[in-house]
C-alpha cells in the first residue's frame, strides 16, 4: 500500500499493517470469513482511518456493522491508485456509460441550459465532458487529487475542489447551482440524508439533481436502507432512495432502471434518477 500516514494521525506501523491486510485478504479469498474478520479487525486497529477499506470488506462478508459510508481514506487511496487506468477499466472493460445516460435523460426531462453545474465525485471528468455544452460553468469535487489531476489536464471544468462531497455541500462558500450531478458516486455513500439535504441547500429552486445508484428491490434488501455488496460497493433500497430524496426537498422526474456497469461479465443493475428541487 502507498503512503498511509498523515501529519494529524499517529504514525502507522506500515509493515505490520501490510502483513495483517494481506493475511486478511488471503483468508477472505479462501472463504474463511471468520478468520478474515479477525485479521481485518487487526487492520482497523493498526489503521483506524481505514485506508484499505477493511470496514467495507467486513460488511461485504456479512461480518461487522455496515459503515455509514466508504471511509474517505479508503476512497482516496483506491482512486489515487486507479486514476491512470480508470477510464480504460470503467468505460472500455466494464461498459460504463452513465454520463451519457444522464445527458439523454436531461435532454428528455430537463434540457436546460444550465448556468452553474456541480459534479460531485467528478473523478476523471467524464460527466463534465459529456455535459459541457449544457452548462455555462462547471465545478468538480472529488476526494482523490490524482483523479482531479487527470480532470484538470482535460481543461473541461471551470473550478475543481479536492474534498468530500457532503462536506463541500454543507460548507463550501459558493454561489448556488442549478444542476448537480453525481454519477456512480452513491455506491461509496451509505446514508443519503445529508447528501440530499446538502444538495438542496446548495441549489436554486427548480434546480436538477441527476445521479445513478446501485438500487436493489426492497424484497432483496429485507428492510435494510443500504448494504455493502460483494464488490465493496453500497447498494441502496429503492424505497429508501425515493423517501430520502423527497424528504430532502426533491421531486422525482425520472427513476429509470439501468445497467450501471458489468462486473465479471454480469450486468450490475441500478437506477438513473433525475429530481427537481422544490
Ligand atoms: C466510480 S468513480 C465515478 C467518477 C465520475 N463521476 C464518473 O462518472 O466517471 C467515483 C468517484 O467518486 C469519488 N468519491 C467517492 N466518494 C466520494 C465522496 N464522499 N466525496 C467526494 N468524492 C467521492 C471517487 O474519488 C471517485 O473519483
TrEMBL record:
Q: Does the keyword Transferase apply?
A: yes
UniProt GO MF annotations: methyltransferase activity
| UniProt-listed Pfam families | Methyltransf_12
Q: So which domain of life are we looking at? A: Bacteria
Matches recorded under InterPro entries: Methyltransf_12 (IPR013217), SAM-dependent_MTases_sf (IPR029063), TPR_rpt (IPR019734)
Segments annotated as TPR repeats: 17-50
Gene Ontology terms: biological process: methylation
Q: Which UniProt keywords apply?
A: Methyltransferase, TPR repeat, Transferase
SUPFAM superfamilies in the record: S-adenosyl-L-methionine-dependent methyltransferases
Which intervals hold domain Methyltransferase type? 118-208
The protein here is known as Methyltransferase
Amino acid at each position: 500500500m502507498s503512503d498511509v500516514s498523515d501529519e494529524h494521525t499517529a504514525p502507522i506501523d506500515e509493515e505490520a499493517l501490510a502483513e495483517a491486510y494481506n493475511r486478511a485478504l488471503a483468508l477472505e479469498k479462501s472463504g474463511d470469513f471468520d478468520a478474515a474478520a479477525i485479521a481485518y479487525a487487526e487492520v482497523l486497529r493498526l489503521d483506524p482511518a481505514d485506508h484499505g477499506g477493511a470496514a467495507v470488506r467486513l460488511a461485504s462478508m456479512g461480518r461487522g456493522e455496515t459503515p455509514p459510508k466508504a471511509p474517505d481514506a479508503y476512497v482516496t487511496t483506491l482512486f489515487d491508485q486507479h486514476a491512470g487506468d480508470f477510464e480504460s477499466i470503467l468505460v472500455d472493460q466494464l461498459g460504463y456509460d452513465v454520463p451519457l445516460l444522464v445527458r439523454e435523460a436531461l435532454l428528455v426531462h430537463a434540457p436546460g441550459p444550465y448556468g452553474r453545474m456541480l459534479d460531485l465525485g467528478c473523478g476523471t471528468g467524464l460527466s463534465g465532458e459529456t455535459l459541457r455544452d449544457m452548462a455555462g460553468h462547471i465545478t468538480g469535487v472529488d476526494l482523490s487529487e490524482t483523479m482531479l489531476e487527470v480532470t484538470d489536464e482535460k481543461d473541461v471544468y471551470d473550478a475543481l475542489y479536492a474534498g468530500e462531497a457532503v462536506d463541500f455541500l454543507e460548507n463550501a462558500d459558493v454561489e448556488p447551482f442549478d444542476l448537480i450531478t453525481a454519477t456512480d458516486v452513491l455506491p461509496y455513500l451509505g446514508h443519503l440524508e445529508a447528501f440530499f439535504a446538502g444538495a438542496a441547500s446548495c441549489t436554486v429552486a427548480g434546480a436538477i439533481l441527476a445521479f445513478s445508484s446501485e438500487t436493489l428491490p426492497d424484497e432483496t434488501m429485507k428492510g435494510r436502507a443500504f448494504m455493502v455488496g460483494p464488490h465493496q460497493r453500497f447498494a441502496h433500497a429503492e424505497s429508501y432512495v425515493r423517501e430520502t430524496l423527497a424528504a430532502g426537498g426533491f421531486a422525482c422526474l425520472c427513476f429509470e432502471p439501468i445497467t450501471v456497469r458489468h462486473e465479471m461479465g454480469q450486468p450490475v443493475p441500478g437506477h438513473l434518477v433525475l429530481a427537481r428541487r422544490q
